[in-house]
Write the C-alpha cells for this entry.
Amino acid sequence: MSKDDSTSMEVMCQYVQCQWNSFPKDTLKGYIKNFKYCPFCGMLLTWSCSKCKTRILDTSAVYCRHCGRKYEKL
C-alpha cells in the first residue's frame, strides 16, 4: 500500500468556517484530549478523515467509510 492510499484521523470543528479548521493539524493533534468543544466557537470537536473530510464515527475503524483509505496509526 502506497502513502497515497492511506490517510490519518484529524480533529475538526463541526462548524466548517471555524478558525480551528485553519490551524496546522500537527499543532492541534493533542488538544482533543483537553477540549471536547471548540475553544473558538463552542461546537463539538470530532475526528475526520484527512483526505475526504468525512466525519469518523468509530475511532477504532481501520478504513474510512467514505473513501476507503486505510488510517495510519494515531
